[in-house]
Amino acid sequence: MNETPSVYQAYQGNTYLFGGNAPYVEEMYENYLANPGSVPDNWRDYFDALQHVPAADGSDARDVPHLPVVNAFAERAKQGGTKVVVASTDADMGRKRTAVQQLIAAYRNVGQRWADLDPLKRTERPEIPELEPAFYEFKDADQETVFDASNTFFGKESMPLRELINALRETYCGTIGAEYMYATDQNQKRWWQQKLESIRSKPAFNAEQKKHILERLTAAEGLERFLHTKYVGQKRFSLEGGESFIVAMDELIQVAGETGVQEIVIGMAHRGRLNVLVNTLGKMPKDLFAEFDHTAPEDLPSGDVKYHQGFSSDVSTRGGPVHLSLAFNPSHLEIVNPVVEGSVRARMDRRDDPHGKQVLPVLVHGDAAFAGQGVIQETLALAQTRGYTTGGTVHIVINNQIGFTTSDPRDSRSTLYCTDVVKMIESPVLHVNGDDPEAVALAMQLALQFRMEFRKDVVVDIICFRKLGHNEQDTPSLTQPLMYKKIGQHPGTRKLYADRLAAQGLGEGLGDEMARDYRAAMDAGRHTAERVLTNFKSKYAVDWSPFLGNKWTDAGDTAIPLTEWKRLAERITTIPESVTPHQLVKKVYDDRAAMGRGEHPVDWGMGEHMAFASLVASGYPVRLSGEDCGRGTFTHRHAVVHDQKREKWDVGSYTPLQNVAENQAPFTVIDSILSEEAVLAFEYGYASNDPNTLVIWEAQFGDFANGAQVVIDQFIASGEVKWGRVNGITLMLPHGYEGQGPEHSSARLERFMQLSADTNMQVVQPTTASQIFHVLRRQMVRNLRKPLIIMTPKSLLRNKDAASPLSEFTKGAFQTVIPEQNQDVVKNAAKVKRVIACSGKVYYDLVKRRTEMESLDVAIVRVEQLYPFPHKAFAAELKRFPKATEIVWCQDEPQNQGAWFFVQHYIHENMVDGQKLGYSGRAASASPAVGYSHLHQEQQKSLVDGAFGKLKGFVLTK
């Protein structure tokens, strides 16, 4: 024995299971049996192995802590005629036997670090002592010693050490490197061990399958080379160096079809996108060429570049037709991920497929983006939550080992692998060498099988290279000289595989023949994806045609009959006797019941609830999500009543809106994770695939939309004009200057106004309960689907002046402009000298001040819809006051924020000659609001007084 103990000896000193250590080990073993996570990782691996060794009495029963743990290490006398050379009384052999189990665990845990994964052969094999027999003090003489292997799946109960090590290296250190041992679920770990070890991670494709793989490689390379010579220097984000990705997609689709999947929704950024469009989804090459030639039909107001385009098709698989959808996406890379997940969830709900057996999300990533973009983490965090799960996503990383512009992996991430973020949800990862297309295909098979078995995310990391630059105008050798010297010497994956098949006697020159045939198809602009179906239509397809070509001025019938009102009101205010509500909640429901009977004006929460109730009763599902949505951030909603005597969420809550009628549409309210970007993108994706569901995302505070700005900019505001994607998502953004500081005042109304054009969305700021009722119903009952941005209030939720009489719900509609309400002012319209136009809460401040001043020569008009601006209604209101010479726009927000810079032009357009337009509000500010209460009050008083005072500052004259 060496004087300085090895790492293994030190470990053995703490874990030897005989003598004085036995009570300690037995106690730890008992803890392990009760909860495997309660013991250190090395002990857990040790005991995991122990569970697959028969008990001392020869039975197959699992050992229990009441039996001496040491007995579990007793050697079998004989197994299948092979003698196991271990004696339970021999301490040295006992140590070796334990060491074998340690060695097996080491290969399962870190074997992938020795795997042959780099096509460029630039990565040196790291020093990992745990994978070397010498680490465990095995000698050459031990190589032929037979050890127990019953806890493996190599097909033998016992194996010589040499054979066992070879089997482990073949399985875990070949062209597939597997990471899965960090999972806490033993079933998942054993599943991977069985799948990988039983075949030693080696595929077994027949001759026809291998030829098909070569054909797919040829198609992938052929398209890139054709485009490279025909459209020199044009951006296309080439797949060259990663052609095995097309093999992966083909295998995934085929295996998915065999397992019952009927729809696959794909999200990916740029790299390889054109290749997927043509060679996987079957886009006609001539249509792609037209986009390069700038001769494609321009039927959208703005359109988008070709590598952002989506596409849909149907393909035949061994299990039947499968519908493929490639999502449209911007250059913001990974933001498409939650959009895809939302689209998948909508399709699942439409099919009544809660576990995702029929619909599969597939997300394709770049290595740098997967490691670097936070929306990845946010999307993964949604994966197993009830409101957002999609039954597991198959992730594919096109890992070109260089990312975007970084020259050193140390600068592209802080983790060993770009995929390490998925360990947060314990998703397995298969790293695979892109130069072994058969291994890539096998990895896709295993990934899909795992997903279907465990309904969990799984990752296939295809390690390849990028032959050209980030785009075709880039010269990567400027910063990567040695890497690109290697790439220049690489013959290409297709050539390597063609030579490999030729060596197997599967056809000399077969690859060249396929390449010529593909080039001929390209020249003719023909289909290159043979399995595309041209006349198949799923019964689950959505018809968007009723929602196209309609005008926003079509209001729809949003009022409901009084009898229906009372019936619905009774249903949504009745709490079963089996549920004990909190006293405050009980009062809310009692008050709402009185509102339903017409005994009190209807407040905001009741108006909102009645909109939801009437919609689900009419067959329109409602999906409401966001932080604190169940009760509402300002506790005005209480859509979910929590039983004060039970705490379990599944039995301790009651949702009245889910009990409106026997055959009602679903009402879903979700308290989301603390994410804005991923959750809003998810809901956008959901709404993009279900025009008949009212999909609402509610921000906890309106300014929290900051965290989802990319979704608003790239999808909600521009998706229709770029891609023709119609969407009816609704955003509820609490907005109002209540003295709560800069972060809890503004929903950044000005940003939505700035994004408003081409009638792309609706921006409203309702000020009464009946207005929120009608605008929510309008969003569904009329045949128009545009994003609806609602600046919802805070103080108005409980302001009695914002409550509405019951009659405003049983007749009327959403008013884009609410006229002057004071009848004394209306009767003396000829005496009105000034019209104050405003939007939102400030209206009530203005009315209060006018009453104090007794200024009946001032009219106050509310603009409830800021975009599209209601010119006709606003002009009609101005005409009611023919003697008014001054128009003032009054707002809570600073001058450079809010609606002022946008509505001033609209107001000016509707003024008559001689009229002047002025502004009253907070001065321009870099911050949305002040943080000091006294300063807020001073500003508020000043802007209200200014609305009635002399025009000053910037004044527009007609």
Briefly summarize what is shown.
The protein contains 32 helices and 26 strands.
CATH fold category name of the largest domain: Rossmann fold
Query: What is the C-level CATH assignment of the largest domain?
Result: Alpha Beta
Give the strand content: 5-15%
Count of DSSP-assigned helices:
32
Distance from N terminus to C terminus (CA atoms, Å) equals: 100 Å
Reported CATH architecture of the largest domain = 3-Layer(aba) Sandwich
Low-confidence stretches: 1-21, 58-89
Task: Please write out the topology.
Elements: H1 7-15, H2 22-34, H3 41-50, H4 91-110, E1 146-148, E2 158-160, H5 161-172, E3 176-179, H6 186-197, H7 207-230, H8 244-258, E4 263-268, H9 273-279, H10 285-292, E5 311-317, E6 320-326, H11 336-351, E7 359-366, H12 367-372, H13 374-382, E8 394-399, H14 409-412, E9 429-433, H15 437-454, E10 458-463, H16 481-489, H17 493-503, H18 510-524, E11 532-533, H19 562-572, H20 583-596, H21 604-617, E12 622-626, E13 641-642, E14 653-654, E15 667-671, H22 677-687, E16 694-698, H23 709-716, H24 719-723, E17 730-734, H25 749-755, E18 762-764, H26 769-781, E19 788-792, H27 807-810, E20 817-818, H28 823-827, E21 834-838, H29 842-853, E22 858-863, E23 865-867, H30 871-879, E24 886-894, H31 900-910, E25 916-922, H32 933-948, E26 956-957
Parallel strand pairs: 4-6, 4-7, 7-8, 8-10, 9-10, 12-15, 12-16, 16-17, 17-19, 18-19, 21-22, 21-24, 24-25
Antiparallel strand pairs: 1-2, 3-9, 5-6, 5-11, 13-14, 18-23, 20-22, 25-26
